[in-house]
Amino acid sequence: MSADTQPVAIVTGASSGIGKATARAFAAAGYRTVLAARSQDKLKSLALEIEDAGGEALVVPTDVGDWQQVENLVAQTVKKYGHIDVLVNNAGLGRLKWLDDLDPLKDIATQVNVNLLGLIWTTRAVLPHMIKRKQGQIISMGSLSSFVATPSYSIYAATKFGVRGFSDALRREVSVYNIKVSVLYPGGVETEFADHAGIQRKTGFTTPSALLLSADDVARATLGLARRPRRNLVIPRLFYLSFWASYFFPGIVDWVMERFYTRRERLS
């Protein structure tokens, strides 16, 4: 494969967790990977790892919540490689507390700015280049919270519902240019996410270990979407049951969550 035909993938949030694993997976599959996140040191370390394994990586420190930095990310990618084949919108964070406990700026605005606005901005920045070539793929990281909004996830769920709506509309806008739009909806993932989310649960409820995904599991699924584009993919597939339960029996889901979670957490 010549350098001109070797595909190029931008991965946001590449400094840790799912993003780091995804960048490794794409690099191992022959993609030239563009590593975007706020931590330059972590990105440089990952780039060295990829290059030592025979891959190629470009480090572009980026806060996706800053439009000028997003523009720079895309400009640096096009300058270096001439085109963009895949954008993996992975950057995101969670502050999982009751709405009345969330700080309006540090918790609420930051989640919306990174999880939704940053994703939209990054997609907007790459889109003209893909339209010009009449090819490309946008893969965005959703969540089970994109379908089932659970207590203490109010803002996080709002951003992930937004990702789903945005992606559905975008798919219908750009399909005429042969641009594919996919969303991956993972359940619980064993990453640093929970360490920064501020989760404090009296009940100790969490994703059962048998259903807990690793970052590598999600990375493989993301690469699979690049190889075989699909509109949506939920992993593990068992979680499709949660979506259908919430869709067809919302009253029952409300009762279960209130009776077995919210009441115990808030009133005990």
Can you tag this structure with a few keywords?
9 helices; 9 strands; seven-stranded parallel β-sheet; alpha/beta
Describe the fold and architecture.
This protein is α/β, with parallel strands linked by helices and 268 residues long. Helices cover 51% and strands 15% of the residues. The protein has helices at 17-28, 40-52, 67-81, 104-133, 154-174, 193-197, 215-227, 240-248, 250-267; strands at 8-12, 32-36, 56-59, 86-89, 136-141, 179-186, 189-190, 213-214, 232-235. Strands 3-2-1-4-5-6-9 form a 7-stranded parallel β-sheet, sandwiched between helices. Strands 7-8 form a two-stranded parallel sheet. α3 (67-81) runs parallel beside α4 (104-133) and α4 packs parallel to α5 (154-174).
Q: How widely separated are the two ends?
A: 62 Å
Query: Which secondary-structure class do the elements indicate?
Result: alpha/beta
Rounded Rg: 19 Å
Query: Can you tell me the residue ranges where pLDDT is under 50 for at least 5 consecutive residues?
Result: none
Number of helices: 9
Helical content (DSSP H or I, runs of 4+):
40-55%
What is the overall silhouette? globular
| N to C succession of SSEs | EHEHEHEHEHEEHEHEHH
The largest beta-sheet arranges its strands as: 3-2-1-4-5-6-9
Average predicted confidence as pLDDT: 91
- The tally of beta strands, per DSSP, is 9
